[in-house]
Amino acid sequence: MTHQPAPQRVALHTRLKPGKEAEYESVHAVIPPELDTALREAGVRTWRIWRNGLDLFHVVEVDDYAAMRAALRDHPANVPWQARMAGLLAVEDDYSGGDTGIGLVWELPAKE
Question: Cross-referenced Gene3D superfamilies, in alphabetical order (predicted)?
Fold first, then answer.
């Protein structure tokens, strides 16, 4: 059996436009199947999003975050999704930068 390396865990912060909270949650109730497939093929293992008011906090477990972003930048399943998100988010993600997520400050170590 081949051992798969541990995924990268990347934290992200995004912010909603005021009044878009319910719409954002509604849109995320079920994402398009082709986007689900694209995310998994790009190495995403899990993606969780929490909301506090307008602030969204994401934790992504992915094989390679930079490679995932490159794979999704022009993916036909992601382009319309990002266009939809642009109407809900205060700052659109245009996939142009070297986004590396939020830096980890501290983590309670697992006991062995």
Answer: 3.30.70.100
CATH class of 8-91: alpha beta
For 8, the 3-state DSSP assignment is: strand
Q: Please give the Cα distance from 64 to 79 (Å, whole number).
A: 20
How much is the pTM?
Answer: 0.90
3-state secondary structure of 5: coil
For residues 10, 80, 72 and 106, what is the CA-based torsion angle, rounded to 10 degrees? 0
Residues 27/88, Cβ–Cβ less than 8 Å: yes
d(CA 28, CA 64): 23
Residue 1 reports pLDDT greater than 70: no
pLDDT in tens, 3-38: 778 999 999 999 999 999 999 999 999 999 999 999
**Segments making up each domain of the chain, as ranges:** 8-91
- Rg of the chain over CA atoms, in angstroms? 15
